[in-house]
Amino acid sequence: MAKDVEQCLKTDRRIGPGAYLAPGGAFAGGTLARDIRFLDRTSRDCGTIAPMLSAVLPSNNAHKLWVQRKLRMLCPILRTRQFAVWGLTYKAGTDTLRRSASIELCDWMIREGADDPRARSAV
Asked: How many whole angstroms from its chain centre is CA 75?
């Protein structure tokens, strides 16, 4: 079934046939979440029971916390620590930061006392 979903998604011109899609980390960005909310609402409006649709976003949001749990395990105290974060955009080839999982992670680290991030050149 995952392969069927993968093939279907690759027909979308915004994703394309060469995209790497496989079960893995949580998704970010707004488009997929918006589409899932729309499908869930539409199925309910049509009287169709689709429990998987209503479970996708809560499950994804819980999955996003994996990085925080892992970071907390490796570094119990974030206060005054400095971290490097790569991949701030939600997909390669874009510069949009809307609903970026990395930005959400940085915000959480700052709330936990980590040093405020500064942009630094890799060179």
From this structure: 22
Which residues have a Cβ under 8 Å from the Cβ of 42 and sit 6 or more positions away? none
Domain boundaries, given as residue ranges, for the chain: 2-111
Residue 119 amino acid letter: A
- Residue 38, pLDDT > 90, answer yes
Task: Output the pLDDT for position 120.
Answer: 53
CATH fold for domain 2-111? Rossmann fold (3.40.50)
Identify residue 67 by its one-letter amino acid code.
V
- Count of other CB atoms within 10 angstroms of residue 100: 19
What pLDDT was estimated at residue 86? Answer: 78
Helices 101-111 & 51-74 angle (0-180, nearest 10): 50
In the chain, the amino acid numbered 82 is Q
Indicate the angle between helix axes 31-45 and 51-74, nearest 10 degrees: 150
Q: Is 7 helix (H, G, I), strand (E, B) or coil?
A: helix
